[in-house]
Design brief:
Blueprint lengths: L33 H12 L7 H15 L2 H18 L3 H24 L9 H18 L5 H26 L4 H21 L1 H4 L25 H25 L1 H11 L1 H6 L4 H27 L4 H4 L2 H14 L6 H15 L3 H8 L4 H8 L1 H15 L4 H16 L4
Helix pairs in contact: 1-2, 3-9, 4-9, 4-12, 4-14, 4-15, 5-6, 5-12, 6-12, 9-10, 9-12, 10-12, 14-15, 16-17
């Protein structure tokens, strides 16, 4: 019987004897682009012995990703982060670089939820706050700080976030679109109010300033002659890289492909026998747990946490802006969005002092130099106007269009 996979197969393949998997395979127009479709067609003809055509296509796609020119670009970005302490050792540069890594990974975890699964959630920053407070309370309220307390804080934060994510999803994921977003926003507001009012535990609006153990403590010295601050920098950077690779593996796994198919056509996925609710719940839980780990790393680096810096709605809006600027459904777009947003917030306020020096004789120009928020808004409007799918999403679309124009017609 014919199988409607959404991929055009050459008539030469009609008489080929191929293995048809017993489990339905969802091939979505958004997760199988034209080059990937050609890889699948080749795999149908020349699948190695012992591999199904789908497995052969996945193996070919993995080999193609390793040979892409962007692989060297990704390695270059990681190398740049590693070399930042040697090239620009000032604390302001280190702080900006590590916060870009932290929030880029946080944006990627949110992109898994909104871009790859199609779930609009305004409560993602709440799990970031859970991790930040769990680590701060574990090392600050349980006596002298130890590495055991630090690991306990991460473990408790992950357990709480996973439980809350499952409970919220179990009761709210059946509500679609805007209604689910409003429910998650209500939970986030509740967590913020709880952190402010429960001052005996959370410190209220004053927050917590925990003392960290061992090499992470202020003024400590680490191995290889590194300061405690640099050890913390490389530790947090390694955690961010590990979380990002985990998210990348997740979206390229069969589970991630199924999630993209559910996002594209949930009714068709249900008709094929997939329990879409379970898959969506799994994606939401994975994104929430990663956000929790990053929240703990934020406390490790900043050494301070309060409701506004960890649970506030502006954190959620920042993450949403990063995903939009970089490109929804790109994963790597979070790096672009975080770099643009955080760099602009660091550089633009400096226009005030520069304007007072350069335009000392003009009061109007001095006042214009102080309106850095206005320039930030203009920058965001220009990005959205010229990159409607985000910076990375638009570049990918242009590259795919050029490949399609340069390919010979069949």
């Amino acid at each position: 019987m014919p199988v409607d996979s959404g991929v055009a197969v050459s008539p030469a393949l009609v008489n080929c004897s191929v293995y048809v998997p017993t489990r339905p395979v969802i091939v979505s127009p958004l997760n199988v682009a034209r080059p990937a479709a050609s890889v699948l067609a080749v795999a149908l003809v020349s699948a190695p012995a012992g591999l199904t055509p789908v497995q052969a296509a996945r193996a070919a796609a993995r080999r193609g990703r390793r040979r892409e020119p962007t692989a060297f670009l990704r390695l270059g970005v990681v190398l740049a982060w590693v070399l930042v302490p040697a090239l620009a050792p000032s604390f302001q540069t280190l702080d900006l670089a590590l916060k870009i890594a932290l929030f880029a990974t946080l944006a990627a975890s949110f992109d898994v939820v909104i871009g790859y699964t199609g779930i609009v959630s305004f409560g993602h920053a709440m799990f970031f706050g859970f991790g930040a407070y769990a680590v701060a309370l574990a090392v600050g309220k349980l006596g002298a700080p130890t590495y055991g307390h630090l690991l306990l804080g991460f473990g408790v934060g992950i357990a709480i976030s996973a439980t809350v994510a499952v409970l919220i999803g179990a009761f709210s994921l059946r509500v679609k679109a805007l209604f689910f977003a409003m429910i998650t926003l209500a939970f986030a507001e509740f967590a913020l109010i709880l952190a402010v009012q429960w001052s005996a535990l959370t410190g209220g609006e004053d927050g917590l300033s925990p003392k960290l153990p061992g090499v992470f403590a202020a003024g400590a010295s680490g191995p290889f002659g590194l300061s405690g601050r640099l050890v913390t920098y490389y530790t947090v950077l390694a955690v961010c890289l590990g979380c990002f690779l985990l998210l990348r593996r997740f979206v390229h796994s069969p589970l991630g492909r199924t999630l993209q198919a559910i996002r594209d056509n949930e009714l068709r996925a249900e008709a094929l026998g997939y329990r879409t609710f379970v898959f969506q719940l799994a994606a939401s839980s994975v994104g929430s747990v990663v956000a929790t780990v990053l929240g703990g790393c934020y406390t490790l680096w900043v050494r301070y946490v309060n409701p506004e810096s960890a649970l506030g709605i502006p954190i959620m809006l920042d993450v949403l802006l990063m995903v939009i600027i970089g490109g929804i459904g790109t994963l790597y777009g979070g790096i672009v969005g975080a770099a643009v947003l955080l760099t602009a917030r660091t550089v633009l306020p400096g226009l005030r002092g520069m304007g007072a020096t350069v335009f000392s004789g003009s009061e109007i120009l001095q006042r214009l130099s102080e309106r850095w928020l206005l320039y930030f808004g203009i920058l965001f409007i220009l990005v959205v106007f010229f990159f409607p799918r985000g910076v990375l999403g638009t570049l990918r679309e242009v590259a795919a269009r050029r490949r399609g124009e340069g390919a010979p017609e069949a």
